[in-house]
């Protein structure tokens, strides 16, 4: 920042975000965590780098520009004693101070209109409220515009900052949480980090929102906001284990057959309970999977027991003359399979009971670091409109694979009562 000093009041998460110098920082916060305030502070800081800087500000819709963003920027500029003129037709705030640049405000709902200017820095509000495809397109347009090299700024550094409430496993989760590239860094802020809220604000939200949404809207966490998670009690922290596969330990492999997308979950049984400690995903076909399991585990001294999809008795591999189960048996694996798959609800109930039972016990644990795809599937698979687990997202493959193993070893026992007639 050149030529002027800012004095601003911030919460701890806001201050940590304000000090970030990465290329693409994200402030992910719950309701009332101060996202718009943080955006305004950071935008003005960037504008004070020099009078020739153009700062781009983005909202999902024009109404949000008019009702929230523009008034907040005007309030902030006034408080800082910076004279300005707001051109509502152009949606540009022109600042007359010789030390400050200007602000162009645009919307995300029509990315094709993000044209005709070059920005020095950009600040994007609530991008996660957009559908993922639209958010992706808007993001590409924004970073393409973010290339201005203003006169008078030594070593100009272009940056795009994001401020949003987490809306499930959406665009922001993919970019900043799941597998962030270099330069993508995130600060997560809870609602209660903001001491300037009304005293009853948090309690009111708790009364109006179900527990799952509270994780997102009060704590700024990424949770499943779809029609309902199949494995709603799974928690990547509470069901996590740091355990790893021991030498020559017997392995129990759940296997789901899908040409070009075979999935195997690799388990051990310790103290009579399952531990998922490895995975093999997106494998071409059954012969390829058999080869991988042999090289990775059998050749290392492990006995491997496979619990496959019972439909593998039919031909789905590339070799039309062999069934998948035959290929596995001929490769030397012990195969544990029933003549037919159990009912889907029985498999889901058995898996869910191991994740968390009515006694509060979490008997199923998974090494979330070694099994990222399986972990994500447990978090994100939802119920489809037909009342069955959704199969359109790809999250069904690891859940089905592990479900075949778990329901085989720990089925839900269906008990029947015997009634003795008093007249007997």
Automatic annotation (TrEMBL):
Pfam families: Terminase_6C (PF17289), Terminase_6N (PF03237). The keyword Nucleotide-binding does not apply. Keywords: Viral release from host cell. It comes from the Bacteria. Residues 253-408 form the Terminase large subunit gp17-like C-terminal domain. The keyword Ion transport does not apply. This is Terminase large subunit gp17-like C-terminal domain-containing protein.
